[in-house]
Specification:
Strand content: over 45%
Order of helices and strands: EEEEEEEEEEEEEEEEEEE
Oligomer: single chain
Structural class: mainly beta
Largest sheet: 4 strands, antiparallel
Radius of gyration: 27 Å
Number of strands: 19
Shape: rod-shaped
Helix content: under 10%
Length: 191
């Protein structure tokens, strides 16, 4: 795009300068760059600059940005500025994660005898997201080792965006193990 800088003194043209814009850039990141899935991007604190071919730049405020709900797949948000009909874009990196995981539907089998292997059949694990929302997750893992009397728990582990979330405890009583869904926890840890 072209920008014209005209200097007038006492109604007379002193100089005219044509500047060619080359791109836009984020010169100050927004205050918030980490989000919970389901939130929308907040540009508060972000400074966007129009950069010209003569190495000058000016701050711009009439830019637009993606307003879509952020998902765990979102890695960046596009910022757009239109100057004299020419569209310029740049991106700002964001991290989007979930709050944790929980069991929406318990597994069909909840009582075990020592030596049996945990069976998740029927279990529905969900990711907890912004504003109380959930979404089903399928690619969680769990131990396939035989359960032993005296063991205290088994973890359901789900990894997303370099964070792992573990959930569910199985408590053993004498020679049987009973899944106690009233005593579950969700832990978010970096990998």
């Amino acid at each position: 795009g072209l920008d014209y800088k005209i200097t007038m003194e006492n109604g007379n043209l002193v100089s005219a300068l044509v500047q060619y814009m080359s791109n836009i850039s984020i010169t100050t990141l927004p205050t918030k760059t980490e989000y919970i899935e389901g939130e929308v991007f907040d540009p508060t604190g972000m400074v966007v600059s129009a950069n010209y071919k003569d190495d000058s730049s000016i701050e711009i405020v009439d830019y637009t940005y993606d307003t879509d709900i952020l998902t765990s797949d979102t890695k960046s948000v596009t910022v757009t500025y239109i100057d004299n009909g020419v569209i310029y874009t740049t991106t700002v990196g964001v991290t989007v994660s979930i709050l944790g995981i929980s069991i929406e539907t318990p597994p069909t089998k909840t009582t075990y005898v020592g030596g049996e292997v945990f069976d998740p059949t029927g279990m529905v694990v969900v990711a907890n997201i912004y504003n109380g929302g959930t979404r089903v997750v399928e690619n969680y893992t769990y131990s396939t080792e035989p359960l032993v009397v005296g063991a205290s728990s088994i973890d359901i582990v789900y990894v997303e965006n370099e964070y792992y979330f573990s959930f569910i405890s199985i408590y053993f009583f004498k020679k049987k193990a009973q899944i106690d869904l009233s005593r579950v926890d969700s832990v978010k840890n970096g990998c």
